[in-house]
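A favour, since you know our structure tokens better than I do. It will help me judge whether the discrete encoding reads sensibly. The space below this message is yours for that.
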Amino acid sequence: MIQGLLDGVLVGSVLSLGAIGLTMVMHTLRFANFSHAELLSIGAYVALVSDAVFSAVLQPLQNIISPFSMTWALALSIPVSLIITGLTAVAIDRFIFKRIRDNGEELSMVFASFGVALIIRNLIGLVFGLKTQLYSDDIVMAIILSTDPLLLIKPDQLLVLGITCIIMVLLHLVLTHTTFGYSLRAVAENPSLAQVVGVNLSKMVTMTWVIGGGLAAAAGILYGLNNQISPIIGKNLVLPIFAATIVGGIGSIYGAVLGGFIVGIASSFALLVLPSGYSPSVPFLIIICVLFLRPNGLFGEARV
């Protein structure tokens, strides 16, 4: 039971990062972006390519950062992946979503996001193939936290949790203690009023995509540290990420964090009592329960 809770927290940390970016986009641009999860795949594969490039250019970067399986090359690849994925998200918005936003309706953007997701997923499969890949083939032994009950945790899992906490703290400080953070929150609440007081709406929308894409990239890389990388990462995580966003309440960053942990823990416990084939249905059940009991989520507010 305790091991399930621990595993759920670790899974939830990745879902939280993905849900934060999604809830920011949904709250600011008012549409459900089903292609957001594919940014996790982009981030994971950009890091994979950057890792190979850095390792080829500088031999010492192939050394492992003990006690983790991460190499120095992969560590340097993380900021590269965050930047490239963030810019990719901006490009997708400029060439697809913005055109529809200016000339169409919100529902059209939702349908377009499905198409974007399929295009990204198949392009990744076309370029990298459908087989799974790993950042490292090295096997890192789990740490025994307790023998009664038996609790195991891998160093990479602690690394994932630590990086997630650092990112969340930095994002909190930016949103609550900087002028940029105040402007971003103002645009999310009321774009028209924010423009009246001098906020550059176009710039804030661009930065929303950059931040959302960067957080998605971080989630994809951290997911890849403990799992195999494949073109269907986004397909597998889109529902849990949406469930985390809905549970926390659309527009609430702190709700997205809590929602990610709730979904992660619930999915982990489901594996203890249900056959593994039924575990993908858990996010569906969570979404239905939340929509029935509290349609606006735990921290969401009704919008007029």
Notes: The beta strands are 143-147, 150-153.
